[in-house]
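Extended Data, panel c. Modelled sequence:
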Amino acid sequence: MKKLLIVLLILLTLPAVYGWSYPLKEIEGSFCPEKEGTCKITLPRIEKANYTKYQQQALYHQVYTVMRGGTYFGGRDFGFGSHGGVDIASTEGTPVSAAADGEVVYAQQKGERGKVIVIKHDRKGTTLHTVYAHLESIAVKVGEQVKEGQLIGKVGKTGNATGPHVHFQIDHNNGEHPYFPKNCSGTIAEVVNEAKCRNQVKANTLDPILFLETQGEIFLAEQQPKKSESLINSMLPQELNYTLQSPIALLGSGITLEITPPIAKGEVFLKDDITITGSSGTEIFPSKVSYLGQGRTVTVIPKTAGLHYLHIQANERLIKRISLFVIDEQMKTLLIEKSKTNPQLKNLLDGIRRE
């Protein structure tokens, strides 16, 4: 009994642990090919903010229609626009819940955003705001204290929305909320699609998927990069390992670049963003990495045969260059023939043969 009381006393003296969750638990739409009409499914998470998974699976394009930093032309162009949050599609009336405990500071119509809710969250001396826009209805009032997972409204298509979805955004404590750069001329769509004021949007908002998948640790890492006893590990891009799946790739096929820490360090954040570029026309996704986790996979799809180079940069400084030789089917056939007398070449081609 004494032990139980001691445990209870310890638990009561511990600081409260606040969680973060996605604003939708279930979604409804044409997500089940085997069924006619709509169906309900659990919201598919982009686990560990692995955007390669998002890039490769059609379901994720249907659900996450526009990502932060994307445009309204589609989710595939992640990083080319000024979209401040993520758009999650579902039918009108789908319940929307608070991403975390906080205070409602805005709950009404707001121009092109339609019906909007803004919740203020105070954590460890810092303040963030979560935004839920284009709602069909609002179930909370300004000044109300809400809990994580509490119903606050329902998915709609109010404002400039062309289809039912919730625009979910996480803002820093600067400016108005939802954050939108005041000195940018044009409609929201024009600003987003033309990547106007993109640096301002990036500086005043957080990647909501990355934030939720790390339970806010990405924000803490940015705010406390020098905290020596923190569970947060931050590394420089030049300290990492960059491993190409193979030095030879088949034209039109994807090949992976693995980015990993030199030793297992748990969740790793980067002190500087990594940018990966290739030859003209080469598809690279994601082309920018700011969170490593326990390792990230980048997909590279060359569009022309011949010798290619991948350039890995941080702060516009080249930290590594990797060569990649891309072959077409005719060249593949010739090399396979030559590999019969060249064991080393045979080993290089084994991966291509298995495709």
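The two ends are 63 Å apart (CA to CA). This feature is highlighted in the accompanying rendering.
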